[in-house]
Amino acid sequence: MFYGGVVVPVGTKILGSETQQGFITQSVTNYLNLAGAVCLIVWLEHLWHSRREGVSATEWGGWCFLAISLIGLAGIHFQMDRILVAETTSVIDPKKFGLLHKMYIGTSSLQWFASLILLFLTLRRWGRQGSNIA
């Protein structure tokens, strides 16, 4: 959220072009997706070790959705990379890139929303487990 809401607009303003900012974003999103993969691995480990304590099917489904959407983001990113020419900071097929970019933003937005739901479910389960201890 911070990257999309702050970094991209500031970068565009400083660089003077959405296209110029896009070439920075092209590289940065690789790190964002890697961070997402690490988070999913940690979350999977937690779900797996907590499975006997009431992990819901909704939590498992949410995690699966996040994993599938991350794979989808990587595939879309790969396709967008093939349309960008970093050396000349040009876009080979702007129309196709625009469509792929909308798909990427839409998928990442759904992923973000699903992450919030999974976080809520996890915290709720932790709260129930904590109340059972006392």
User: Unreliable segments (pLDDT under 50, ≥5 consecutive)?
Assistant: none
User: Radius of gyration in whole Å, from Cα?
Assistant: 18 Å
List the domain count as a whole number.
1
State the share of residues found in helices, binned by percent.
Answer: over 70%
- CA-based shape: elongated
Strand order across the largest sheet: 1-2
Topology pattern, helix = H, strand = E = HHHEEH
| Number of distinct helices | 4
Mean pLDDT: 90
Give the tally of β-strands: 2
Sheet with the most strands, sense and barrel status:
2 strands, antiparallel
State the distance separating the first and last CA atoms.
37 Å
Strand content: under 5%
Structural class of the secondary elements?
mainly alpha
Detailed description of the structure:
This protein is mostly helical and 134 residues long. The chain has one domain (21-125). The protein is built from four helices and two strands. It has helices spanning 2-15, 18-50, 57-81, 94-133; strands spanning 84-85, 90-91. A two-stranded antiparallel sheet has the order 1-2. Helix 1 packs antiparallel against helix 2 (18-50), helix 2 runs antiparallel to helix 3 and helix 3 (57-81) runs antiparallel to helix 4. The longest helix has 40 residues, at 94-133. It is elongated. The N and C termini lie far apart (37 Å).
